[in-house]
Amino acid sequence: MNVESSLDEGETATNGRVLSLRGISKNFGAVAALTDVELDISAGEVVAVVGDNGAGKSTLVKVLAGVHAADAGTIEFLGSQVTVNNPQRALDLGIATVFQDLALCDNLDVVANLFLHNELAPMRLDEVAMEVRSWELLKQLAAKIPSVRIPIASLSGGQRQTVAIARSLLLEPKLIILDEPTAALGVAQTAEVLNLVERLRENGLAVMMISHNMEDVRAVADRIAVLRLGRNNGDFKTEDVSTEDVVAAITGATDNAVSRRVSQTTATSPEDAS
Amino acid sequence: MTRTDESTPSVAADLQDERLRGPEDIGGMFKIAIERIRGGDLGVLPVVVGLIIIWTIFQSLNSSFLSSANLSNLLMEMSAVGVIALGIVCVLLVGEIDLSVGSVSGLSAAVLGTTFAKSDWPIALGLVVAVLTGTVIGLIYAQVYSRFGVPSFVISLAGLLGILGLQLETLGKSGTINLPFDSVIVKFGQLWFVPDVVSYVLVLLAIGGFLATRVMRARAREASGLSAPSWQLLALQAGALAVLLLGALAYLNQGRGVGWMFVLFVVLVLVLHYALTRTQWGRSVFAVGGNEEAARRSGVNVTRVYLSVFVLCSTLAALGGVLAAGRLAAAAQSSGAGDVNLNAIAAAVIGGTSLFGGRGSAFAALLGILVIQSISSGLTLLNLDASYRFMVTCVVLLLAVMVDSVSRRSRASHGRA
């Protein structure tokens, strides 16, 4: 299975498996945050990881980003088994993570943020080359940023998200993890970020998106993986699953607050009378 | 496409957004500058305005204030504390503080006194040991800071006392060690001035260097399809700089001219400016000052950045102490005592370095110390003693911090960091 070539073509085919998790477990003292978690993501595929608060989504992100090491299980990346024990290792492998708080420096301009710690020519910064590369990256994302020489503080939430994603693309990753990319955004900006996610897929990247928002998930994800209390609780193709089924998997019961509410409203709505 | 013509059909890669207004010409440059100032991005404006006010007041009170002899003396007098202020700029940039720079400078003066003057060590060795004393202190601060997480404010406050004790102990019972007048360091501090011809050559070299780097940068940008400042703009900037520097130099050269110690200070400012703006280390310093966690997640070794900054600050403080000892021709109990500490910190802040981290430049030390020293010199000429100097400096420092805080708020509301 030649993963590299299929990725470099930038095709949307989903034949190349990028990430494969088997039996991932992580304990914090007496709390089993993750138990036997499995997850597969292929190139050119967007997988949404959903789950309630405390389901283990963030822990899974941190395991993949190298912030926490898994206690058990194997991580297979691009066909070979790997260990991710620190953030730099994750970046070196080609796993880029955009954290929820974005981690940008407000006082630095866009170029400085994009290249932070990856500056070209460390002893005599090559500002021109960095600026040119910044524009390339932002164009690739069809980003609407007026200038790369303005401080991050003057950008909107959506623009910041774009910069954070662009920064994760700088090292040409194979897998990009977005932690709640739309959580703090308005309607238009959310749409922008979702467009961005689709563009990443078109570019042949594997995308793992953590989200609470079912609408966003359904809009862009090819597959939805559900975590519940640190365990896998369903893996659906987006087109053949209803939101109710996903919610049921998230909450762990077909009879839950959300489904009861849905059934109440559908029972009273006229077009459901047949 | 060798010139940025309006008729050029292709727009530079970085100016394609229709919302963007670039400094196309000289008028546009001024317009943008005014908007930046309105938005709270004051830059060096407050300090330049302050300097003009201070100079006008003192000149009207005593006509010898702006005499070339007094200005020459002022530049020599400010160099030692200016060097200390350079180190303060670095720690302020990462959002920390060092309150012990005065004591460190006093200790290094004392070390120079005992090794060179008292124990007859070679002057070079004495100087190196004195400056390294500062380096060691910086290393200790950095270890305490990063291993135990003690705030730098407390570490350096403790350091202030401890190092003052060490200084007194080093000086011994007499409390003062005189440095011989024929020694290099005293000559450097008091007597060595740049010959007129050499000074003009140095300034012309500096202007040439400035113009050359600007032109090279503009060429590189154009070659990569980015916008570049027009030739007229570059020529205007270089011309303005030349008029300013050559005019000042011609005036100073009517009297004693410019001391080598001031030249050393300016060179240090330029080196630090380069390091802060054009190297990866400088980027990391600003990043840590802006958002430490973001810097860490990007892979910046935050501990090492703090280490470098604390070491640099203490080392520069020690160097400043040695220069001050040369100027005074003695190491005394009063070396580095009194207002040295606060003058250095005030200079950095008055020059436009933010106390909140992440904003500032090496030139802040130069401009800030010029303000502080002008006040000090002006009050001395008026025969007012230290009591007034303290009070006036207090007001100026407070004003500077207020400007910093208010412009920070204004920047936040105008979307500038």
Q: Would you write up a description of this structure?
A:
The complex is a heterodimer of chains A (274) and B (417). Chain A is of the alpha/beta class. Chain A folds into two domains: 3-241, 3-Layer(aba) Sandwich (Rossmann fold); 242-274, no CATH class. Helix content of chain A is 36%, strand content 24%. Chain A contains ten helices and ten strands. In chain A, the strands form two sheets. In chain A, strands 6-7-8-3-9-10 form a six-stranded mixed β-sheet, with helices on both faces. A four-stranded antiparallel β-sheet of chain A has the order 2-1-4-5, with helices on one face. In chain A, a hairpin with a 2-residue loop joins β4 (72-77) and β5. The radius of gyration of chain A is 20 Å and the shape is globular. The model of chain A is unreliable at 1-14 (pLDDT under 50). Chain B is an all-alpha fold and 417 residues long. Chain B folds into two domains: 63-193 and 256-413, ABC transporter involved in vitamin B12 uptake, BtuC (Orthogonal Bundle), CATH 1.10.3470; 194-255, no CATH class. Chain B is 72% helix and 1% strand. Chain B has helices at residues 26-38, 45-61, 68-93, 101-118, 123-148, 152-171, 184-190, 196-223, 231-253, 260-278, 280-290, 292-297, 302-328, 340-350, 362-381, 386-413; strands at 176-178, 330-332. Chain B has a two-stranded antiparallel sheet. In chain B, α3 packs across α14 (340-350), α4 packs across α13 and α14 crosses α15. The interface between A and B is large, with 37 and 37 residues.
